[in-house]
Specification:
The structure holds 2 protein chains of 2 kinds. By secondary structure, chain A is mainly beta. Chain A is built from no helices and 11 strands. In chain A, the strands form 2 sheets. In chain A, strands 2, 4, 5, 9, 10 and 11 form a 6-stranded mixed beta sheet that branches. A 5-stranded antiparallel beta sheet of chain A has the order 1-3-8-7-6, with no helix packed on it. Chain B is 0% helix and 50% strand. The model of chain B has no long low-confidence stretch (mean pLDDT 92). The chains are: A mainly beta, B mainly beta.
């Protein structure tokens, strides 16, 4: 079965600093999803990547899927307190249009004003 | 902006009791999912549902679990006889289509506490 490893597990940054979160898969990624979760709340969809080398941006958040499609990174530029939360990567593992997403354990981000 | 809604937000029940968790998916979505997250652990897939039948289910989704779309808007998860280990956050999700091209949108979750 597919495993997703996220690093770091937690991150504390000063407001205004840039940061990167990584998600590494044990298998080829056919669809990679990034979600944000606030403690005890639901998952907010951020971005989905499919093609090797693909890069998407939304406001100050950029996500990339590497060419070999086994790793994705999420980069936040000029972090703000509103970026604080748990970032989860999720993947469609089968490549056959599977219905289920497999998730990593998450990266907890704290932003200090 | 359309969103997935879930009720109740928190459910406390005694071991052995039946619970029904309710979800209203986004109105034009056709694919529905339940996931759960035990405190401190990963979000885990339970089941997917399309065209009034289960499409996929995980090992977690045993005979104690069932899903139903009783009308045109609701999607429910029933746990027949709850166990302590069923305590978790349960998330409903929906997508317009499925597979690698379509995003799954999640609801805010129902926190289930089994005592």
């Amino acid at each position: 079965s597919q495993e997703l490893e996220q690093s770091p597990q937690s991150l504390i940054v000063q407001e205004g600093k840039n940061l990167t979160i990584n998600c590494t898969s044990s298998k080829t990624l056919y669809g990679l999803y990034w979600y944000k979760q606030k403690y005890g709340e639901g998952l907010i969809f951020l971005m989905m990547l499919q093609k090797g080398g693909e890069e998407k941006s939304h406001e100050k958040i950029t996500a990339k899927l590497d060419e070999k499609k086994q790793q994705s990174s999420l980069h936040i530029t000029a972090s703000q307190p509103s970026h604080a939360g748990i970032y989860l990567c999720g993947a469609d593992a089968s490549g056959a249009g599977s219905y289920q997403l497999t998730f990593g354990k998450g990266t907890k981000l704290s932003v200090i004003p | 902006e359309p969103e997935v809604t879930q009720t109740p937000s928190h459910q406390v029940t005694q071991m052995g009791q039946e619970v029904i968790l309710r979800c209203v998916p986004i109105s034009n979505h056709l694919y529905f999912y339940w996931y759960r997250q035990i405190l401190g652990q990963k979000v885990e897939f339970l089941v997917s549902f399309y065209n009034n039948e289960i499409s996929e289910k995980s090992e977690i989704f045993d005979d104690q679990f069932s899903v139903e779309r009783p009308d045109g808007s609701n999607f429910t998860l029933k746990i027949r006889s709850t166990k302590l280990e069923d305590s978790a956050m349960y998330f409903c999700a929906s997508s317009e289509k499925t597979g690698k091209s379509y995003e799954q949108y999640f609801g805010p979750g129902t926190r289930l506490t089994v005592t």
